Amino acid sequence: MDKASKILVFGAKGLIGAALARRLRQGSFKNLILADSDTLELDNRKKVYDFFAKTRPDYCIIAPIKEGGIVANIRYPAELIYQNLSAQTNIIDSAWRVNVAKLIYLASSCVYPKDCRQPIKEEYLMSGPLELTNAPYAAAKISGIEMCKAYNLQYNTRFISVVPATAYGPGDNFDLNTSHVIPALLAKFHAAKINNTPYVTIWGSGKPKREFIYADDLADAVLFLMRQGRLTEVVNIGTGVDVSISRLAQLIKRTVGFMGKIKFDNEKPDGVARKLLDSGLLFSLGWRPRVSLAQGLLKAYGLYKKSIC
Ligand SMILES: NC(=O)c1ccc[n+]([C@@H]2O[C@H](COP(=O)([O-])OP(=O)(O)OC[C@H]3O[C@@H](n4cnc5c(N)ncnc54)[C@H](OP(=O)(O)O)[C@@H]3O)[C@@H](O)[C@H]2O)c1
């Protein structure tokens, strides 16, 4: 991949897509095609192929997604599976047809079994039942991984799937109905600080452990893999460190400067006890994250405050 390479990013206005665009610009890559949901309809096979035939990218990153948290998973499973399957199928097939040199497909840790051994190695894929509430979304993601592998096998392509830990950072979604835990807690603690609320309530016992990665680190890892000569078909991208929700809440409380108490609502479900990716494969190739959780939270909180000013 050189500075003149034509790089196509789908989902470029999302959390990870925008981080990829930032990283590419910082690296002086100027030949970028940044596609968002206004650019073209990804469920239209002809339009997607025509777009590839016209733009002829050298590299392609697939980061668009139809998602909406647990509510959408339950209410709109048909739309979720249709939109995700059709978009990725059209992109992967078109990329092969126009000879894209390398493609990276962003999967998700929900592809791993619900009760998976920890830390989760890439080889645990399809070794047990999925979490039922997001099975349609997970099944679409597994299909994307398998499609990349099948094209590599039959057509000698260089298509890689990556499985990232939960990302957070610039441009995060702070809508409490659909946001991930870090933006949700930043917004909650900030509101409690402004309103002088005596305590913040956290769902569950606080005991489950989760892994988080700063979006710019994740983008950096994706581009690192894009430059690798060796073809590693499925690669976890994490930090190798997880944190309990209770510890995370303490860190966010300190970051925000909230002086009240934290209460845990044990009536609410905890979800799986632990979700930590084994990123040993990626680390063995020479990549390491740069932003610690404490640093990332500080950056994310600064950006949140700016966004609500
Ligand atoms: N964020 C995480 O923690 C995380 C973790 C693991 C894996 N991933 C994976 O990483 C990828 C990117 O995640 P993200 O967090 O950046 O998602 P995001 O912030 O929700 O962004 C997704 C983007 O995809 C766009 N999009 C949706 N349908 C599209 C279409 N038909 N054509 C073009 N763009 C379309 C959306 O645009 P509109 O808003 O305009 O619809 C949105 O900008 C996803 O595949 C996700 O599964 C994310």
UniProtKB/TrEMBL annotation:
Residues noted as binding NADP(+) in the record, renumbered to the chain: G11, A12, K13, G14, L15, I16, G17, L106, A107, S108, S109, K141, H180
Family: Belongs to the NAD(P)-dependent epimerase/dehydratase family. Fucose synthase subfamily.
Site (Important for catalytic activity): S108, C110
Protein's name in the database: GDP-L-fucose synthase
PANTHER family: GDP-L-FUCOSE SYNTHASE
Catalytic activity: GDP-beta-L-fucose + NADP(+) = GDP-4-dehydro-alpha-D-rhamnose + NADPH + H(+)
Pfam families reported for this sequence: Epimerase
Protein's pathway: Nucleotide-sugar biosynthesis; GDP-L-fucose biosynthesis via de novo pathway; GDP-L-fucose from GDP-alpha-D-mannose: step 2/2
Binding annotation for substrate: K188, W203, R210, D270
Domain NAD-dependent epimerase/dehydratase: 7-238
HAMAP family per UniProt: GDP_fucose_synth
Positions of transmembrane segments: none
